[in-house]
Amino acid sequence: MFKNIVLAYDGSEYSQKALQRAKAIAERFEATLWLVHVFRNPSDLLGYTDFEKLFAKRKSAAQAVLDDARQELGRTTFTVQEKLQDGLETESILKVAENCKADLIVMGTRGLGTVKGLLVGSVSRKVIHLAECPVMVVH
Ligand code: ATP
Ligand code: MG
Prior knowledge:
The protein has helices spanning about 15-30, 50-75, 90-100, 120-130; strands at about 5-10, 30-40, 80-85, 105-110, 135-139. It is of the alpha/beta class. The protein has a 5-stranded parallel β-sheet with strand order 3-2-1-4-5, sandwiched between helices. β4, α4 and β5 form a beta-alpha-beta unit. α3 (about 90-100) packs parallel to α4. The site of magnesium ion has 5 residues, from loops.
């Protein structure tokens, strides 16, 4: 039923809970888990001398987030594919989902955003609206 599961991970407590859910489902269905983390490309700085440096810095910080997720997953009986994406969160998550023919996207209700009072974060809201497969939002 679930062969390719996308887990959208931003390092937040919510996404950590989503990770545990995604892990349980991937185990149960012997699925491939596509672990996605998106970082913002500082494209407004394109052409400036610091662009490369800033990009490299953001990329390695983003890789560290994926490494943490890997560690939280621990030893797994299923395949894990890491996807480090630069760009816009929603677009990038949906692109990975499309490319791997995801049958489920698992994510947190909220993330690292600081705006209190929001029930569902903007990335989750957009993914729920635009995804072509079921979305599990964990809180
Ligand atoms: P907002 O970003 O709208 O201020 P928020 O940070 O509280 O609010 P979202 O960003 O929508 O909420 O986060 C909801 C979920 O979306 C997270 O738990 C995570 O699963 C996923 N997500 C958010 N940002 C990223 C990211 N950069 N890479 C991968 N997944 C992400
Ligand atoms: Mg956010």
